[in-house]
Design a protein that fits this description.
Blueprint: E1 2-8, H1 27-40, E2 49-53, H2 56-69, E3 76-79, H3 87-95, E4 103-108, H4 112-120, E5 133-138, E6 150-155, H5 157-160
Parallel strand pairs: 1-4, 2-3, 2-4
Antiparallel strand pairs: 1-5, 5-6
Length: 166
């Protein structure tokens, strides 16, 4: 059994002039990353490998998650191939994972994440929002052989916020 936890980076700041890869998080993005990571801290498995896109907004999101989970920050593996918006490229990266790991926590980007969960999951998701979390199980012992899996858990920031604060 392989378990994949996909986390879309938190909301980025479009107000500062910088390249796409160097955009930082907005204050809402920081708050949402704390909200989701605190909620999921007991759910996330310490035996997982943690992969992250090399984009600053993904790195910052991963850092907040690991700090709230009290995990060492040096356990994050930054992969330039995860700086993609294409589901096929994301799939290829995941399928290269060493089979000794049964669980991946992956911080990445849309539309790759939404397209991936709709191709491989059993629950249709119109759009995985920023800081959205989707956990999937695959009934296989090989990442190379992942195919249709089971969508196990979906958590979005709006699920944890009260309606009167929106």
């Amino acid at each position: 059994m392989k378990n994949l936890m996909l986390i879309r980076h938190a909301k980025s700041n479009w107000d500062s002039p910088s390249s796409d890869k160097m955009r930082s998080l907005s204050s809402r993005g920081i708050a949402d990353a704390h909200l989701i990571s605190s909620f999921l801290a007991s759910y996330l498995n310490e035996r997982c490998i943690v992969w992250c896109s090399t984009a600053k907004r993904a790195k910052d999101t991963a850092t907040i998650f690991l700090q709230n989970m009290i995990w060492p920050l040096d356990s994050i593996i930054f992969k330039d191939e995860l700086y993609t918006f294409d589901a096929n490229e994301l799939t290829n990266a995941i399928k290269k994972c060493n089979n000794s790991y049964d669980c991946i926590i992956l911080f990445g980007h849309n539309s790759a994440i939404t397209d991936f969960v709709n191709k491989f999951g059993d629950v249709f998701i119109d759009n995985v929002p920023t800081t959205g979390f989707v956990s999937m199980n695959f009934d296989t012992d090989s990442w190379q052989n992942i195919s249709k899996g089971h969508t196990k858990k979906v958590v979005f920031p709006r699920d944890l916020k009260s309606n009167d604060r929106e």
